[in-house]
Amino acid sequence: MKQILVTILIILFSTSSFAGSCPMLWGKIDAKTALLTDSDLKNKVMELRDAGEKAHSDGDHSKSEKLLKEALSLLDS
């Protein structure tokens, strides 16, 4: 019984920590897009960022993280 309780607690805490990474990622995107001069790239990045924020709001954190990381990779290339 004790092992089950510990397992449930680990799952609960790890899920909330992953969910918290999405706002950090879109914060990085916001900081980097402020420096962009290429409007086409900026629009594409902002579309991905907005889609990532929506996925986060809908509770799909893995999709959100994927979209936000894609936006960051565009900015870093």
Features:
77 residues, mainly alpha
What does this structure look like?
Helix content is 86%, strand content 0%. α2 runs parallel beside α4 (61-76) and α3 (39-57) packs antiparallel against α4. The mean pLDDT is 82. 18% of the residues are buried. It is elongated and about 60 Å long. It has 77 residues and is mainly α. It starts with a helix and ends with a helix. It has one domain (2-76).
For the secondary structure, the number of strands is: 0
Give a quick account of the main beta sheet: strands, pairing sense, barrel closure.
Answer: none
Shape: elongated
Distance between the termini: 50 Å
Low-pLDDT residue intervals, each spanning 5 or more residues: none
Helical fraction: over 70%
Number of helices: 4
Q: Quick check: average pLDDT?
A: 82
- Total domains, how many? 1
Question: Rg, please?
Answer: 16 Å
Helix- and strand-based class?
mainly alpha
Residue fraction in strands: under 5%
Order of helices and strands: HHHH
Brief characterization of the structure:
It is built from four helices and no strands.
Task: Outline the secondary-structure elements.
Elements: H1 2-19, H2 21-33, H3 39-57, H4 61-76
